[in-house]
Amino acid sequence: MVLELNNISKSVLYQKSLIYFNSIYKSPKDVISSVEDQLITIHGVIDKSIRRNSFHVFDMDYTITFQFKDGKVRINSPSFVLTAYTKNMQTLHVKWTKFSFNGEHLGIYGKNDKLKSARAKKDLEVFYNNYIKEYFTSIIQDDEW
User: Fold this and answer.
1) Which of 38, 39, 41, 61 shows the shortest CA–CA distance to 49?
2) What is the distance between the alpha carbons of residues 135 and 97, in angstroms, rounded to a whole number?
3) 3-class SS at 45?
């Protein structure tokens, strides 16, 4: 996804982004890595954020990268790992077509791309859509206070 932000230099976009990300994380130095004026990578963890059903709620470990050019921010597709602990560790994959006898591996989608967990799909979409919306809103705000 590319956000068009005309007439804003990549340096300003980078700085505004860095300020924003530093403001939303409890320990920014543990979450943010960057190459000045080029890119920012966020590696975050959210406990109990993705629901597969009313019984399974997964922690999400995610990574998302923002790249900067004059007038543009490119947001690369996020990567994530979803895990939960009940009797044993469980992993929720985007697509999982193999049968898991002990329930350690589950899928949002199964064979033939059949949706197995609409709730998990929706939770992921809501999280990332809100994340990008809040980021975009903060970048276009006037800095005067």
Assistant:
1) 61
2) 35
3) strand
User: Structure pTM?
Assistant: 0.87
CA distance 107 to 126: 18
Q: Where in the chain are the domains? A: 2-138
Per-residue pLDDT at 143: 66
Q: Please identify every stretch of the chain with a pLDDT value under 50, giving residue numbers as ranges.
A: none
**Dmax over Cα atoms in the chain, in whole Å?**
58
pLDDT reported for residue 61 = 96
Q: Which CATH class is domain 2-138?
A: alpha beta
Dihedrals phi, psi of 111, to nearest 5 degrees: -60, 145
Is-contact 64 76, C-beta < 8 A? yes
